[in-house]
């Protein structure tokens, strides 16, 4: 060990093993989205029922990730990884042979319970293994996993669904997960320190209600509408649960999730930038498939292929960005990356019904290139300020905020798109009626064509409007990025000056 708590020689073999486990678990999050129609047909289930395969997975992640700080401190990295990988592998096996939708949903929940621990565990091992001056390059490789896996998911899923059964999605993941588990049992060693802490059950309940309610409510808003009881009640419960959770954490000597880490200014700033950026990032990830598939009639496979170069560019750039971070710091990278992101998002706000496929691919790739210069450097810069003992809380907080801000951003942008689409459709319909001679009686086919044209134009307008709002969201992140400074581990402020709550 050196003076900063990092190891003199990082355990590259262990980190590679953790990378594989994290990659397949993150890949699994987006792998099933394209397959939902096929699953609906096989099990004769409704869209709302099948949607729980993704919503349920996200909820389990949202509930368990805040508790990951406790698990990482309480148990060895070996026990935790083997447990997480065992759950994920068992869930994958059950999903591949599931005879009913209920069994498949149970399998997805089991998968998610293992997946939720993977990312915080890997990030914590990385922070423990590398000194501050080398963390950029290390976290750049981590970004390769975090960014590439969910982006590859839809493309791989689209190709497999086009040629095989949806069960093949689990058949592909299962052997990789099983081999990773066996190697972990045989080779994985302990490197992270443990603390004899107790689980505060009330904190876990409040965390589950708080984060689970917010995630479910905001994720349901796009489909059910804000006036649905399935939306506003979970959000209200989530807000109350989260407030009570935060108050309890600030009163505990050993909190489940340490909110006093926001006493570190650069960590607080990096969290704010990451939240804003996650909301902006979802504009392209969410709106592009709607535009490409619904308005342009492009197949899910080709829709995924359109986004693949962007994912690959982000993956290739992530390690390079990490090395640049070690040399130049986060601010210059964040400013340049956000400038590219803002410009390309602005171009996305001017889409037409005949924008070329190659132009869309190029624009999306450039946007992802810009984002690759922001996400990991900003996150790493904030984590670098935390003392070693606070790393589990920092990684848990970052992962939790990404989940929540992603759900909030998605709901916000979808609502904006839907509201603008409706208002624009009414305006276009009124204009069409006024321009039509009073004596003209169009036949039903003309009316149907007119309605389709109006709805397409209105939806295009709604998508462009949402992209325009994303520009302003990204500008907020750009302004915040100018205040970033290089950091190094500070003294532990979380035990000083207790907060009166």
TrEMBL record:
It comes from the Bacteria. Coiled coil: none annotated. The keyword Disulfide bond does not apply. The keyword Cell membrane applies. It is a multi-pass membrane protein. Keywords: Cell membrane, Membrane, Transmembrane, Transmembrane helix, Transport. CDD domains: MFS_LmrB_MDR_like. The chain crosses the membrane at residues 12-32, 52-73, 80-97, 109-130, 137-160, 172-189, 201-219, 231-247, 267-292, 298-316, 328-349, 361-380, 465-484. It is found in: Cell membrane. InterPro entries: EmrB-like, MFS, MFS_dom, MFS_trans_sf. Residues 14-489 form the Major facilitator superfamily (MFS) profile domain. Belongs to the major facilitator superfamily. EmrB family. This is Drug resistance transporter, EmrB/QacA family. It comes from Bacillus badius.
């Amino acid at each position: 060990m050196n003076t900063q708590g990092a190891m003199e020689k990082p355990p590259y073999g262990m980190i590679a093993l953790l990378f594989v486990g994290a990659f397949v678990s993150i890949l699994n999050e987006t792998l099933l989205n394209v397959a939902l129609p096929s699953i609906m047909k096989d099990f004769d289930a409704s869209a709302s029922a099948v949607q729980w395969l993704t919503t349920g997975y996200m909820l389990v992640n949202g509930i368990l990730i805040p508790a990951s700080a406790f698990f990482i401190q309480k148990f060895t990295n070996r026990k935790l990884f083997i447990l997480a990988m065992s759950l994920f592998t068992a869930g994958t096996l059950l999903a591949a042979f599931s005879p009913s939708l209920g069994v498949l949903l149970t399998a997805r929940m089991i998968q998610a319970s293992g997946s939720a621990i993977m990312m915080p565990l890997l990030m914590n091992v990385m922070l423990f293994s590398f000194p501050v001056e080398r963390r950029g390059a290390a976290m750049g490789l981590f970004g390769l996993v975090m960014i590439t896996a969910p982006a590859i998911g839809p493309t791989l899923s689209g190709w497999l669904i086009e040629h095989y059964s949806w069960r093949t999605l689990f058949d592909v993941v299962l052997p990789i997960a099983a081999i990773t588990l066996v190697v972990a049992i045989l080779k994985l060693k302990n490197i992270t320190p443990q603390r004899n802490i107790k689980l505060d059950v009330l904190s876990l309940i409040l965390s589950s209600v708080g984060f689970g309610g917010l995630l479910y409510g905001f994720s349901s808003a796009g489909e059910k509408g804000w006036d649905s009881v399935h939306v506003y009640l979970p959000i209200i419960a989530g807000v109350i649960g989260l407030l009570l959770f935060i108050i309890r954490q600030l009163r505990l000597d050993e909190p489940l999730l340490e909110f006093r880490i926001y006493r570190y200014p650069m960590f607080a700033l990096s969290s704010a930038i990451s939240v804003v950026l996650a909301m902006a990032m979802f504009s392209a990830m969410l709106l592009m498939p709607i535009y490409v598939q619904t308005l342009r009639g492009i197949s899910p496979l080709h829709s995924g292929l359109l986004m693949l170069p962007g994912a690959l560019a982000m993956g290739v750039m992530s390690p390079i960005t990490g090395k640049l971070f070690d040399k130049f710091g986060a601010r210059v990278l964040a400013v340049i990356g956000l400038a590219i992101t803002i410009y390309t998002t602005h171009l996305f706000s001017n889409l037409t019904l005949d924008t070329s496929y190659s132009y869309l691919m190029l624009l999306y790739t450039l946007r992802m290139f810009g984002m690759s210069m922001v996400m990991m450097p900003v996150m790493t810069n904030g984590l670098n300020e935390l003392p070693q003992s606070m790393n589990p809380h920092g990684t848990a907080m970052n992962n939790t905020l990404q989940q929540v801000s992603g759900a909030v951003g998605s709901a916000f942008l979808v609502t904006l798109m839907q509201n603008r689409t409706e208002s624009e459709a009414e305006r276009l319909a009124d204009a069409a009626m006024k321009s039509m001679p009073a004596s003209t009686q169009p036949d039903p086919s003309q009316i149907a064509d007119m309605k389709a044209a109006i709805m397409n134009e209105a939806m295009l307008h709604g998508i462009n409007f949402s992209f325009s709002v994303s520009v302003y969201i990204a500008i907020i992140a750009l302004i915040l990025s100018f205040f970033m400074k290089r950091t190094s581990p500070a003294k532990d402020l979380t035990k000083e000056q207790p907060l009166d709550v």
